[in-house]
Amino acid sequence: MMTERIVNFSAGPAVLPESALKQAQRDLFALPGVGMSVLEISHRSKTFTAIIEEAEANLRALLQIPDSYHILFLQGGATLQFSMVPMNFLRGAARPATYIQSGSWGTKAVKEAKREGDVVLAWDGKAQGFVRIPRSEELTIPHGTPYVHFTSNETIEGVEFDTEPAVGNVPLVCDASSDFMSRPLPVEEYALLYAGAQKNIGPAGATVVIARDEFLKQGAANLHTMLDYRVMAAQKSLYNTPPVFGIYMIMLVTRWLRDEIGGLENIEAQNRRKAALLYDVIDGSHGFYRGHADRESRSVMNVTWRLGDEALETAFLEEASRRKLSGLKGHRSVGGCRASIYNAMPVAGVETLAGYMTAFQQQHG
Q: Which CATH class is domain 263-364?
């Protein structure tokens, strides 16, 4: 039976901070002073009220979220948000919604939005194989569009926006699932952003939505209750039983970011250091490793690359597994290799991978 931890490069559910996991382990049987597991407590209890309030307070402090924004803890992951956003803001709109299609997840968001109304693309990177993000001058934003949607980091292709796209005064909506809380964020530039927790801030099952109050007021009428942001905001995410354990873990992970890391500026510096370790190996390999993304569009969270052929990639992945480097196989739609190096991935884990990549090239190059 394996009890030691491997180095987990999975794209999600992903590695979590060890201190948060150990605290959860201690609380799993009985929360101190409560006598019940965190898995058993009522979402209407004072104990859980304190948990969800701290989770929200930590997010507000770390991201400097204005009071004019709601923080919602929902379910269904980013995939449900692909539908909720157009249901609330495209249904009945006079003009098409606008999407920036920079990768596989952005493409899925477009597909769901088209079920609710017309959609136009401000930019589409599919023909180039989703290897880069657009420049500001390449974006076409139609007049009167109800919102512009983009995916800040595409986990599959490994491309990332390093700043918000220039959309003028149009409401900006973002799927921030895979780089949420990895760096400071100018929340006031967004009308709404959402993120599945399972990349950087918790386990699968919880979704964070941050939304400007004035934007929510523009939502469509007569929506199904569970799909109406205004209901969720009015009920403070407690209309029904929320993902209690997921919210508890978000509380612990945001504590870790606040108290142990020292804020988002520090975690960004650490994340960039980790990414540079791998990109330096790729760039210095003289073509033995070939990065998928263009250099100026590379993701800090998901490093993607190919080797010379599938047999070599298979050998690379098999040896990595023997070295207890897990989760390095690229997504089935792209192939190759991918290292997801989210917030909780230690620098030492990335150093181990970079050393292995160098050694593998020396052996097979």
A: alpha beta
